[in-house]
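Homework-ish question, so no full write-ups if that breaks the rules, but can someone show me the predicted structure for this set?
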Amino acid sequence: MAKTFTIDGKTIPFETGQTIIEAATAAGVYIPHLCHHPDYTPHGSCKLCSVKVNGRVCSACTFPAGEGQEVINNSKDLNDDRQKITQMLFVEGNHLCPGCEKSGNCQLQAVAYHLNMLDNHYQHFYPKRALDASHPDVLIDHNRCIFCTLCVRASQQQDGKDVFAISGRGINKRLIANAQSGLLKDTDLEATDAAAHICPTGAILIKRTGYQIPIGERIYDHKDIDQVSLAASGLIPITTLAPSLAVGTEQTQDGE
Amino acid sequence: MANKIRIATTSLAGCFGCHMSFLDLDERLLQLAEVVEFDRSPITDIEHCTNCDIGLIEGGVCNSENVHVLREFRKNCKILVAVGACAINGGLPALRNFIPLEECLAESYLDGIGVENPQIPSDPELPLLLDKVRPIHEVVKIDYFLPGCPPSADVFWKFLTDFLEGREPSLPYEWVHYD
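A: Not a homework solution, just the prediction itself:
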């Protein structure tokens, strides 16, 4: 007998060592997330994947699946909390979508759409953050960084480099580049690196590619991130998704 | 129809793009006119709100006049709706939030290329600028939000028809976008 637990009453099989989100994804159940990526070690920082395990709130990306667990995922309470978390991410940075070339392919925006977030609710910080356009092929717009550390992990675990890190705490937290000058051009980052493509928001962008796919034809313009996320795991045929997805496969790999 | 729904609209720190999008209702405006009457709005040129059912606010708040207008709308409208990206998060005008106000004014009126007779405008009739451009929910209570830059005419139509027919307004997935 395979070991199982339940998510919202649905029986989910799992193997020892799997996290809740891994088992859920394999069974075709979407749990909202931003900092989770199946290829990298979990970070557990964005808290969007918070689920209730036997009544207690846990991060599904870090919590191990266990025999007989009763997991609540798609409840009003949890989705309300997730919306508040997403609103806080929006007001803590400067996420002005109309002027962002990632709009429509942005997972932060897509999660907000998924949660039917219509406003930012909280008072905006409007923090003053810089732009690093020093690298010939890659741009960092710190206004849009949500500190998910996906670029940090991709650089270390996939590219075999160590280009990025998060420095400082609280309101002073920031993404830094591993160079004496602090500038991206002085790191060994290349445009072909996974770390240059993994950003779920528009914080790390490949230059001169921003509008190859027009606004309105992008991944999340027509498809909810729950479908896109599961499709990227091979559970929904990719042909059922927006035509732009075929062109934007790079974007799909980005996130999922 | 005896009692028409009264709607007021305004553009604060916005570009009137949301109003233009509203006008994209085209022929549907005639249908709307059968059940709706416009109060204060750029469409009517009425200068002050009287009692209204719905106030549609485009744009964020960038100066003292915006604050007065917004408060007048809140006082007179049963339901206040933030329309578009700028009303919801400050939008494009909020890009000045990262530059000190003094530097903004100096660049525009003192040091900028082609400026003649440089002086900071200070006529008492001019509304004072706020230090930052703010979304309207930070100033008054907002009841509904229609995101988009701009929200499409369909979004306005869906919201208003839901409202007129007594349904809780809701938008399908593809009509909720922030760009």
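Now go work out the reasoning yourself. Hint: Residues 64-76 of chain B form the longest helix (13 residues).
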